[in-house]
Amino acid sequence: MDTEERRRGILETARRDGSVDVGQLAVELQVSKETVRRDLNALERHGLVRRTHGGAHPVESAGFETTLAFRTTMHVPEKSRIAAAAVALLGDAETVYIDEGYTPQLIAAALPRDRPLTVVTASLSTVGALASAENINVLLLGGRVRGGTLATVDHWATRMLSGFAIDLAYVGANSISREYGLTTPDPAVGALKAEVMRVAKRRVFSGVHTKFGAVSFCRFAQVTDFEAIVTDTGLHSSEARRYALLGPQVVQA
């Protein structure tokens, strides 16, 4: 197995499993740990993976995006804590946008049921979770359904969204960095998220620590556009402070 073939295999494993471990790869590939580290460093330079302590995880890009089904299996305890902390920021909002993705779906499930709320969403999964909820009126944006995420996109969705004035938007992203802002692999998704940013009075980003420092294909917002960033304690405290210096409140659950 040559170097390029080995690195392709490492990338495929990272995308299949959600992460890779240096020691495990060294055993499986019958190479040294230092060789694996060099491979991961090379993949990181090409923007394909993000190094972590002892391994790496894949970066979502124009050519690769995880499915909703996969996201429901990764970092579930962290996502549940993030959702609870995000809902604590609801305040007196009466109209709420819930983005596509598993963490936003958990936010929807955690919304209070003892007060009237109107929820706008592109996510079929969120609609299913809220359709029978007492006191919650749900509006689903129309459009083309993306099979991997079970969410609507394209001009039908953005046109419908453009007619609203939303109190609070819970926005997700595939990647977030201080330099490039919030990004997503799909241009259609990016266009919808950009419209959400335009029509929402308040905006809260929620996402696990693995999204930070990575960059996907389509930028739709800057870090400074948000009143709050809600993540888990896996984001280093010094990095959290750097994001807070840009303006948003950073909440680590």
Helix/strand layout:
Layout: H1 3-17, E1 20-21, H2 22-29, H3 33-45, E2 49-52, E3 55-58, H4 68-71, H5 76-87, E4 95-98, H6 102-110, E5 117-121, H7 124-130, E6 136-140, E7 144-146, E8 151-153, H8 155-162, E9 166-171, E10 175-177, E11 181-184, H9 187-199, E12 200-206, E13 218-221, E14 228-231, H10 237-244, E15 249-252
InterPro entries: Carb_Metab_HTH_regulators (IPR050313), DeoR-like_C (IPR014036), DeoR_HTH (IPR001034), NagB/RpiA_transferase-like (IPR037171), WH-like_DNA-bd_sf (IPR036388), WH_DNA-bd_sf (IPR036390)
Domain HTH deoR-type: 3-58
GO molecular function, one term: DNA binding
How would you describe this structure to a colleague?
With 253 residues, the protein is an alpha/beta fold. It is built from 10 helices and 15 strands. It has a 7-stranded parallel sheet with strand order 6-5-4-9-12-14-15, with helices on both faces. The N and C termini lie far apart (43 Å). The mean pLDDT is 92.
Concise summary:
This protein is α/β, with parallel strands linked by helices and 253 residues long. It has helices at residues 3-17, 22-29, 33-45, 68-71, 76-87, 102-110, 124-130, 155-162, 187-199, 237-244, and strands spanning 20-21, 49-52, 55-58, 95-98, 117-121, 136-140, 144-146, 151-153, 166-171, 175-177, 181-184, 200-206, 218-221, 228-231, 249-252. The protein starts with a helix and ends with a strand.
- The beta-strand count equals 15
Largest beta sheet: strand ordering: 6-5-4-9-12-14-15
Main beta sheet, described?
A: 7 strands, parallel
Number of helices: 10
Principal-axis shape: elongated
Q: SSE order in H/E notation? A: HEHHEEHHEHEHEEEHEEEHEEEHE
Q: Which structural class should the secondary elements be placed in? A: alpha/beta
Mean pLDDT: 92
Beta strand % = 15-25%
- Helix-residue proportion: 25-40%
Q: Gap between N and C termini, in Å?
A: 43 Å
**Poorly predicted runs of 5 or more residues:** none
Q: How much is the radius of gyration in Å?
A: 19 Å
Organism: Streptomyces gilvifuscus
InterPro entries: Carb_Metab_HTH_regulators, DeoR-like_C, DeoR_HTH, NagB/RpiA_transferase-like, WH-like_DNA-bd_sf, WH_DNA-bd_sf
Function: Repressor of the lactose catabolism operon. Galactose-6-phosphate is the inducer.
Protein name: Lactose phosphotransferase system repressor
